[in-house]
Amino acid sequence: MNPVVYLDNNATTKVAPEVVEAMLPFFTERYGNASSMHAFGGAIHADLERAREKVAALIHADPSEIVFTSCGSESDNMAIFGAVERLGRDTTIITTRVEHPAVLQPCRELRDRGYRVIEVSVMADGTLDIDAYSAALATPGPKFVSMMWANNETGVVFPIKIAAEKGRKTRPDIKLGICGEHGGDPASIDFFHRVGLKYVSCSPYRVPVARLAAAQAALRNSK
Ligand SMILES: Cc1ncc(COP(=O)(O)O)c(C=O)c1O
């Protein structure tokens, strides 16, 4: 049989063997519901909190800042609806035309509910139209920006550093989506916190930990 050459790691990757090994007991022996009152479930709750602490330590965050969800889509939805509710009805939501449906659908739902939503276009090569993005930032009132770090289909890396610099004057709340594999530059951290990176949503099975660490540290610095 011909060996499989898998070239779609941008969409998803194989789970690392050590992750499979670490998780196996929770599928086979320690499968209690972490929210249950009984000891069997209570033990799992302790494991869950330990995992939260470990993830937080790994990325220099506070455990209370780590929210485990079932997937990147749920994280995107939670962050977008949560942020916009906090910012208020006059918020302009800025995103890009090429976001994953996990971002575009909630934004369009918010447009149907009366919010102003700007989907910034991209250039012919899939990169961000910086002028259009700047124009969107120039709109009055609070702004919430949801931008992917790398596109899940084209692999194009978005200029987060530039996007953050552009936003410095208007200080929008920014959510960075790092669900797709990406070549993002961890040095962007200096720029993230100046404009207030408030949310990071990700699917860990595609995110190199070092880059997640940079993003999460930026999140903390923005406070
Ligand atoms: C950029 C991006 N955002 C969001 C998602 C949704 O993540 P999930 O499949 O974990 O719900 C994906 C999934 O491919 C993605 O690539």
Beginning-to-end CA distance, first to last residue: 54 Å
Q: What structural class do helix, strand and pairing data support? A: alpha/beta
Percent strand: 5-15%
Please state how the strands of the largest beta sheet are arranged side by side: 2-1-3-4-5
Biggest sheet overview: 5 strands, parallel
Oligomer: single chain
Gross morphology = globular
On the 0-100 scale, what is the average pLDDT? 82
Spans with pLDDT under 50 lasting ≥5 residues? 183-189
From N to C, what is the helix and strand string? HHHEHEHEHEHEH
**Count of DSSP E strands?**
5
Q: What fraction, in percent, of the residue positions are helical? A: 40-55%
Radius of gyration: 19 Å
Bound molecules: pyridoxal-5'-phosphate
Number of helices: 8
SSE blueprint:
Layout: H1 17-28, H2 39-58, H3 72-87, E1 92-96, H4 101-112, E2 116-120, H5 130-137, E3 143-148, H6 160-167, E4 173-177, H7 189-195, E5 197-201, H8 209-221
Parallel strand pairs: 1-2, 1-3, 3-4, 4-5
Helix pairs in contact: 3-4, 6-7, 7-8
The structure holds pyridoxal-5'-phosphate.
